[in-house]
Automatic annotation (TrEMBL):
It comes from Rhodococcoides trifolii. It comes from the Bacteria. Residues 8-123, 141-259 form the VOC domain. CDD domains: BphC5-RrK37_N_like (cd08362). PROSITE patterns: VOC (PS51819). The lineage of its organism: Bacteria, Bacillati, Actinomycetota, Actinomycetes, Mycobacteriales. This is Oxidoreductase.
Length: 312
């Protein structure tokens, strides 16, 4: 696909076995706002984002990534994308139509090449939001999502072919080769990335903060609350963004970030970063090293929901 109708990442939906703790974590610790709650289902918004919600949590016996939702330019583009996917042999879970999630809109769901559920939508109502104030240590919006795949090159090729994502940069391991691939659907350096892993799973979800001060206040707030810190604080080379990774109550990894690179589509050329260089992981040199333990935390549990649509 030479042109991508995808505009941005809307929300990431997860299912967890310890629903109450996850809801308390997002609302009580992470800084999100619960907007709607049903039986075993809670939607969380970011105060600075026009999206109706950026994370949905569902109660289930199994932990899984329910779906990743992307915005599309308009309803016509939604229909065109559905037709393109069908022609490309992609399995649709639902036909384009009215959505019954908060904010409504028009969209459909389908399986990606690894069996994850993806939603594409347009015309979702804008949520009333506000400017995040100086030193307010809560997320402004959803930044990006990183996926684990045992065949990352194949996963990247699928998203390039069917959804029009473009490669921004690559992390290269001296022995493993391509370790992480950063993909964009607009000027933001990456809205999604794919990481090499023994199994298909969620690597992490990232949330954008107002600025460096707010990012550090949030990092310190969680550290003082003894939320398990996995990696950071530091600043990556690829994307030039800050990072602090924490483990949530169900073993998923969540990231605070800020200052993710905005690039010029006409002049940008992808780079390959060597992971043997410590500045690739952390330019500042302030974080704990990226080692086998950190990697194992990022691997997460193998996703049990592949090629299975969530009930809602």
């Amino acid at each position: 696909m030479t042109f991508s109708p995808i505009t941005h990442l809307r929300h990431v939906d997860i299912a967890v076995p310890d629903f109450a703790k996850q809801v308390d974590f997002y609302g009580g610790r992470w800084g999100l706002t619960a907007t709607e709650t049903e039986s075993g289902l809670t939607y969380f918004a970011a105060e600075g984002s026009p999206e109706q919600y950026i994370v949905r949590v569902r109660d289930d016996v199994d932990k899984r990534l329910d779906l990743i939702a992307f915005g599309v330019t308009d309803a016509k583009a939604v229909d065109a994308l559905a037709s393109s996917l069908i022609a490309g042999g992609v399995t649709l879970i639902s036909e384009p139509g009215a959505l019954n999630t908060p904010g409504g809109g028009y969209g459909f769901r389908f399986f990606d090449g690894d069996g994850r559920v993806v939603e594409a939508s347009a015309d979702v109502a804008v949520r009333k939001h506000r400017k995040i104030e100086v030193r307010e240590s809560i997320p402004v919006r959803l930044s990006h999502v990183v996926l684990n795949s045992p065949q990352p090159e194949k996963t990247v090729a699928w998203y390039e072919k069917h959804l029009g994502f473009r490669l921004s940069d690559t992390l290269d391991h001296p022995h493993l080769g391509g370790l992480m691939y950063f993909l964009r659907c607009g000027p933001q350096h990456h809205s999604m990335a794919v990481s090499r892993c023994p199994h298909t799973s969620l690597n992490h979800i990232s949330f954008e903060m107002r600025g460096l001060d707010e990012y550090m206040f949030a990092t310190g707030r969680l550290m003082r609350a003894e939320i398990p810190k996995i990696w950071g604080p530091g600043r990556h080379a690829a994307g030039d963004n800050t990072f602090s990774y924490f483990r949530d109550p169900n073993g998923n990894i969540m990231e605070y970030t800020t200052e993710l690179l905005q690039l010029d589509e006409d002049t940008w050329h992808p780079s390959i970063y060597d992971t043997a260089d410590p500045e690739t992981s952390d330019q500042w040199g302030t974080s704990n090293p990226m080692d086998e333990w950190v990697s194992s935390q990022m691997f997460n549990d193998a996703d049990k929901g592949l090629y299975t649509a969530p009930p809602v």
